């Protein structure tokens, strides 16, 4: 890598770090802490029983030795493992607003990663296309998080397509303990959409049994509706297939919008059927208010 490119990469990463750290410190840290609880309770100490204490917490061994009742005191086990599963397939390079879908994914991942290390949680990363591109095991610390962010931003994928099922199956194999798994993708894939959704639901079901799976669905508004600009050649970024559409025809624009809406609705129904918490995000809209609202809704529902 030449020095100029290395300098540009470091500058971009530093700007992203400053931006996302500010968001975490000023607005998101409390929501993250309250929504994502630890795996359970850790034993802290024993103390003498006082009226009102739960009888089930009595430590009978200490009680027998002391001749008076003592109870066990517990504290919440806060340390979590956060795993970011980020889709870096070719369709993520599209963006009609200030950010591409991949850039929005990088910002989201950065916010989540910095929220995690602020709470002394571990962060891991899986980058995937139609194959597993890279795996970074969960660790703590700023340097580790900066590596995670760098890979999301600058990794050069070997594949073009998307296989989210393969990514989830890989996560299930490598995660030994319960984790919070954030699946960040536009969920666009080639092939039969009904079969693809059925396979995705199977994989999500398996992951959500062992872990806490959260899906962050990234979209771009231009992929949901067509402008009236005459004949338009549209290329599928993942397959290379080119289709010409006459966007001056209202029926063509209406059919395109309806098919996009139907695809999203099928996906959302699939998420709900598998009890996977889901957040829809658009490259043209600020993501932080949506993320805050999502965390608050999740906290109220789970409490």
Keywords:
303 residues; Rossmann fold; elongated
Write the layout of secondary structure elements.
Blueprint lengths: L2 H33 L4 E9 L11 H7 L3 E8 L3 E7 L13 H18 L3 E7 L3 E8 L2 H13 L9 H11 L5 E6 L7 H18 L1 E8 L11 E5 L6 E5 L3 H24 L3 E6 L5 H15 L1
Parallel strand pairs: 3-4, 3-6, 6-7, 7-10
Antiparallel strand pairs: 1-2, 4-5, 8-9
Q: Rg from C-alpha positions?
A: 23 Å
Structural class by sheet pairing and helices: alpha/beta
Number of helices: 8
Q: SSE string, helix = H, strand = E?
A: HEHEEHEEHHEHEEEHEH
The number of domains is: 2
The 3D shape can be described as elongated
Biggest pleated sheet = 6 strands, mixed
Strand order, main sheet: write it out: 5-4-3-6-7-10
CATH topology of the largest domain: Rossmann fold
Q: Report mean pLDDT, rounded to a whole number.
A: 83
The named CATH superfamily of the largest domain: von Willebrand factor, type A domain
Please indicate the percent range of residues in DSSP E strands (runs of 2 or more).
15-25%
- Unreliable residue stretches: none
Instruction: Give the second-level CATH assignment, the architecture of the largest domain.
Output: 3-Layer(aba) Sandwich
Summarize this structure briefly.
This protein has 303 residues and is an alpha/beta fold. The chain is 46% helix and 23% strand. The protein has two domains: 14-35 and 81-302, Rossmann fold (3-Layer(aba) Sandwich), CATH 3.40.50; 40-77, no CATH class.
């Amino acid at each position: 890598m030449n020095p100029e490119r290395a300098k540009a990469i470091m500058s971009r990463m530093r700007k992203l770090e400053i931006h996302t750290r500010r968001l975490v410190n000023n607005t998101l840290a409390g929501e993250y802490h309250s929504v994502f609880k630890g795996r359970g309770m850790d034993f802290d100490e024993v103390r003498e029983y006082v009226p009102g204490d739960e009888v089930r917490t009595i430590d009978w061994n200490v009680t027998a030795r002391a001749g008076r009742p003592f109870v066990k005191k517990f504290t919440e086990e806060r340390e979590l493992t956060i795993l970011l599963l980020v889709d870096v397939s070719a369709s993520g390079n599209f963006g009609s607003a200030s950010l591409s879908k991949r850039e929005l994914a990088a910002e989201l991942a950065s916010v989540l990663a910095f929220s995690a290390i602020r709470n002394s949680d571990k962060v891991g990363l899986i980058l995937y296309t139609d194959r597993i591109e890279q795996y970074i095991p969960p660790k703590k610390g700023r340097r580790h998080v900066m590596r995670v962010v760098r890979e999301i931003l600058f990794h050069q994928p070997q594949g073009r397509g998307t296989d989210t099922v393969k990514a989830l199956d890989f996560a299930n194999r490598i995660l030994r303990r319960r984790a919070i798994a954030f699946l960040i993708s536009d969920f666009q894939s080639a092939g039969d959409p009904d079969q693809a959704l059925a396979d995705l639901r199977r994989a999500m079901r398996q992951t959500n049994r062992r872990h806490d799976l959260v899906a962050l669905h990234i979209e771009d508004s231009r992929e949901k509706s067509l402008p009236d600009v005459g004949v338009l050649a549209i290329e599928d970024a993942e397959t290379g297939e080119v289709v010409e559409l006459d966007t001056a025809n209202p029926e063509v624009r209406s059919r395109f919008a309806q098919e996009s809406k139907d695809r999203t609705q099928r996906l959302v129904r699939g998420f709900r059927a598998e009890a996977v918490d889901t957040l829809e995000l658009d490259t043209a809209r600020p993501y932080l208010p949506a993320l805050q609202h999502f965390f608050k809704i999740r906290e109220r529902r789970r409490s």
